[in-house]
Automatic annotation (TrEMBL):
It holds the Pfam family DUF8173. Residues 173-336 form the DUF8173 domain. Residues 346-379 are annotated as: Disordered. The chain crosses the membrane at residues 200-219, 240-264, 270-292, 301-320. The keyword ATP-binding does not apply. The lineage of its organism: Archaea, Methanobacteriati, Methanobacteriota, Stenosarchaea group, Halobacteria. This is Cell shape determination protein CcmA. InterPro entries: DUF8173 (IPR058486). It comes from Halonotius roseus. Keywords: Membrane, Transmembrane, Transmembrane helix.
């Protein structure tokens, strides 16, 4: 098999995995009603037991027990040596590492994927990425597409190994009961997703509050413009958010298949996941700011706390809570997208600095007023 064929097929395989994972995860808030799905890190401690994990996060680490599925979009997804997942593991990440026990399947698109010698996977494995190492026990079949696929000396595959890679290495001690097939047509992967509820809800709220505080302190005027845009143009903002939510995964797949390749697509997927987290916080903050303004007050800190806490409570309501959280996400994502677009457009144009825009002024602009040039953001 030529190098170009291996790269192309690997991109198709990981691209298919990424789009299925992204679409299923971004629609998660509507399907899992009482779930807090965005956080800086999700860690299931050694003595902790949860039903399922589904997250947008910087990292997802399972050290304890998850009785159901683990899925998400993160920089790192890991099941440690003492970790146990009763269901399946699926995700798009920079790095995926399985050291522990997985009772179901593993489906992943990542830059680096490792199933180490201490890992036991009872189901099938379908992975696509840059570097793939399999050195543990897998009872089912394995499909692997990437730049390199390596079978270590402890690899014990109960089913068939079907791979497509520019470089394939097999240790003589590795065993594959169903045989090894070099398949140049790997191009699809299926996965289901399901994230922390219960124990992680409070942590997720705290993480969102920390992120929101950072955004308000570091980008005060941009944050004010986000709130003002949601208040004055909710229809347009939500529509842009919807297009971004579903258009970005498609663009990432096109990048993985036809343009620069898997590494950039994986980085883009991670960035998109972090962007979703920012959008969740911004959307809930903007709604809180609008509600607060109806009472005649303009205070960005009260708006942040009120918005995030309010949505955390609303999220506990079956169906309705999920719908409201999804609306806030679309509003935040649309405002973030439009705000970034406007920032790039105005980089070379003269105008007031970022810190000259006030929280109150952004609402005034939408109501027919103008932001006072030279005003100081004291909110």
């Amino acid at each position: 098999m030529s190098l170009s064929v291996g790269k192309r097929s690997g991109r198709i395989f990981v691209g298919s995995l990424v789009i299925v994972l992204l679409v299923s995860v971004v629609t998660g808030p509507a399907a899992a009603q009482a779930v807090q799905g965005a956080a800086g890190a999700v860690v299931i401690e050694e003595d902790e037991r949860v039903s399922s994990v589904e997250a947008f996060a910087g990292s997802i680490i399972v050290e304890g027990t998850v009785t159901g599925d683990v899925s998400g979009l993160a920089g790192t997804i890991r099941v440690t040596e003492g970790g146990r997942v009763g269901g399946s593991v699926s995700g798009a990440a920079g790095n995926v590492r399985i050291d522990g026990t997985v009772g179901g399947d593993v489906s992943a698109g990542a830059g680096d994927i490792r199933v180490t010698d201490t890992a036991t996977i009872s189901g099938d494995v379908a992975v696509g990425g840059g570097s793939i190492l399999i050195d543990g026990r897998i009872d089912g079949d394995v499909q692997a597409g990437g730049e390199s696929v390596t079978l270590g000396p402890n690899a014990a595959i109960g089913g068939e190994l079907r791979y497509d890679a520019a470089q394939f290495t097999r240790d003589p001690a590795a065993t594959v009961a169903g045989g090894v097939v070099n398949d140049r047509n790997l191009g699809s992967g299926t996965t289901t997703t399901v994230l922390p509820s219960g124990a992680a809800t409070v942590y997720g709220l705290l993480a969102n509050l920390v992120l929101g505080a950072i955004l308000l302190l570091v980008f005060p005027a941009f944050s004010a413009r986000v709130a003002g845009r949601v208040a004055t143009s909710p229809g347009k903002t939500g529509g842009v958010g919807l297009l971004t939510l579903f258009g970005t995964p498609i663009a990432l797949v096109l990048i993985a298949v036809t343009i620069i390749g898997i590494p950039l697509a994986v980085l883009g997927a991670v960035a998109f996941g972090l962007g979703i987290w920012v959008a969740v916080v911004y959307g809930q903050y903007a709604v809180g700011a609008w509600v607060l303004r109806q009472t005649g007050r303009d205070d960005r800190w009260v708006a942040l706390v009120g918005g995030l806490v309010g949505f955390a409570v609303l999220g506990l309501i079956p169906i309705l809570g999920g719908v409201l959280e999804l609306i806030a996400l679309l509003l935040g994502l649309g405002a973030l997208t439009l705000g970034l677009r406007d920032s790039f457009r105005s980089r070379r144009q003269p105008g007031p600095s970022d810190r000259q825009t006030t929280f109150e002024g952004e609402f005034s602009q939408g109501e027919g007023g103008r932001t006072t040039e030279g005003a100081v953001d004291n909110s």
